[in-house]
Amino acid sequence: MPFQKENTDTTFFSVDNIIFGFDGDVLKVLLIKRREEPFAGYWALPGDRVSIDENLDTAAIRVLEELTGVKDVYLDQVFTFGKVDRHPSGRVITIAYYSLVNIEKVDIEAASFAEKVEWKEVREIESLAFDHFEIMVTCLDRLKQDIKLRPIGFELLPEKFTLTELQKLYEAILEQDLDKRNFRKKIISMNILNTLHELQTGVSHRPAKLYSFDAVKYEEVKENGFIFEL
Amino acid sequence: MPFQKENTDTTFFSVDNIIFGFDGDVLKVLLIKRREEPFAGYWALPGDRVSIDENLDTAAIRVLEELTGVKDVYLDQVFTFGKVDRHPSGRVITIAYYSLVNIEKVDIEAASFAEKVEWKEVREIESLAFDHFEIMVTCLDRLKQDIKLRPIGFELLPEKFTLTELQKLYEAILEQDLDKRNFRKKIISMNILNTLHELQTGVSHRPAKLYSFDAVKYEEVKENGFIFEL
DNA sequence: GCAAAAGTGTTTTCATTACACCCATGT
DNA sequence: ACATGGGTGTAATGAAAACACTTTTGC
Fold first, then answer.
1. At A198, is the pLDDT very low, low, confident or very high (cuts 50, 70, 90)?
2. Sites in chain B below the pLDDT cut of 70
3. What is the CA radius of gyration of chain A?
4. With contact defined as beta carbons under 8 Å apart, do A61 and A68 qualify?
5. HSE-up of residue B30 (Cα within 13 Å, Cβ side)
6. Contact A56 B93 (CB under 8 A)
């Protein structure tokens, strides 16, 4: 991350993008291992300076795309971190975003400023460069809230998924077990899923039905006063 | 607001503080009438540049205090607005905060850059300078959410208040009527209020009991797993 | 035929809603 | 005595929670 030639009279600003993925079991986040000082060798959140003619959202999308090759993902601004001393080489204010991506679609290319790029299990991360750990925790809290109130969990799954996969995703993010029957009853009764007449393959047990999220149906029921809540 | 001598290579950043107050009847917000260009003569949200050695929260508190003389108020960061063209005289990214103040304690002193400072009824505001209307709407939405999930309504009332006052406050913010008995039952059952053995005075009807919010009790019940929700 | 996950309804429990009359005070 | 808001309880409704067995497939 290029903050080398600092001008001590100037405030810089950046975006950091917390990219969440789900591997069917645990929630992961995409981290980069920094090649350069400060914090060389530390894991950090992907981010970059925002250029003067670039919108904030655009910068966050750019960071994501440069790192993963993925476009058109769910993205949300969370919080702006600007403590005077948060960056050792000058005043840097950073606007934190989170993204939700289908982990299978991501093709990781180590960025020039990174030694490595890796998916890390969220619950096992203990520290990060700068104040990135705090940023990650804030974004994770926000994700926990958002996922109960908006139909965004689907962004982390393949287009076709089983209800058990969806449930496991919710359990991983919310860190609590959910009742299978109640979960299914509720999500089905929302009328925002398509039942594909297609079954899971390659499993050594009864194959599950596949579903997909139907954004059009969701808009319809929303018109009629439906409020997503899980 | 001093953005006169702009350097087109530099990005500036500011905080804007949406200061909410309640007059017993409607929700209000403190606006300033701009003396200088751009948008001279327009109503705007109070805000200022953040200096290089100043934390964001500190800047928001400073803006509030310079304008109202009030300290120690509830303050929350909401969202950062940074569209490239949001400010006509350069790139200015602004971090929006909202504050809740007891309207009676505020002593308005017009700031140097303002022609006037006034409390305006939130629901009657139709436009503001820059993108301030959008900022205000975003903050208002956030306040609506927050007030249901955190015991912050009290910040807008005098220390001693009646339950009807509290209910009217909720009704004004949420824009919906609430049932008197249910509201009282719920708020009383939370055990976060002190019943003062004191009555309202100067009213030409049965005087109401006065209550105060008890932060210590709130922390206690929160320890025991209580979650504020209204 | 056994292991493994899919799929399916009913009852209980609890929180929310709806609702109307008497009370205390000032004028 | 009247106008004004203060103060109070119960029944009905609906949503959430708890709970266990049969089914389908691969090996």
1. very high
2. 1-8
3. 19
4. no
5. 32
6. yes
> Residues of A with CB below 8 A from B56's CB?
80, 82-83, 93
> Closest partner residue to B80 among A11, A53, A95, by Cβ?
A95
Residue type at position A68: T
Task: Determine whether the interchain pair A77/B80 forms a contact, defined as Cβ–Cβ distance below 8 Å.
Answer: yes
Domain boundary pick from A149, A180, A215: A149
Q: Domain count for chain B, please give it.
A: 2
Domain that holds residue B211: 157-223
Q: What single-letter DSSP state applies at residue B208?
A: P
pLDDT of residue B9: 77
Residue B161 shares a structural domain with residue B78: no
Residues A163 and A145 in one domain: no
pLDDT, tens only, B73-131? 999 999 999 999 999 989 999 999 999 999 999 988 777 777 899 999 999 999 999 99
Q: Does B227 touch chain A (CB under 8 A)?
A: no
Residues B142 and B165 in one domain: no
Angstrom distance (rounded) from CA A58 to CA A104: 23
What is the reported pLDDT for A2? 45
Q: A130, A149, A168 — which closes off a domain?
A: A149
Do B138 and B184 have their domain in common? no
CATH label of the domain that carries residue B219: 1.10.10.10
Residues B22, B119: Cα–Cα separation, whole Å: 10
A95–B55 C-beta distance less than 8 A: no
| Tens digit of each residue's pLDDT (9 = 90 or more) over A75-108 | 999 999 999 999 998 999 999 999 999 999 998 8
Tokens 């990650």 locate to A136
B21 and B80 belong to one structural domain: yes
> Of all protein residues, which has its CA closest to the C1' atom of C8?
A181
Structure tokens at A164: 């058990």
Interface contact B49, partner A, CB < 8 A:
no
* Residue B5 falls inside a structural domain: no
A111, A161: one domain:
no
Closest nt to B164 (CA→C1')?
Answer: D6
**CA-based nearest distance B36→chain A, Å:** 25
Which pLDDT does position B156 carry in this prediction?
A: 97
pLDDT tens track for A126-150: 999 999 999 999 999 999 999 999 9
User: What CATH number did the domain enclosing A72 receive?
Assistant: 3.90.79.10
Please tell me the distance in Å from B54's CA to the nearest CA on chain A.
Answer: 6
* Residue-wise pLDDT tens digits, A144-163: 999 999 999 999 999 999 99
Q: What's the token pair of residue B180?
A: 């008197």
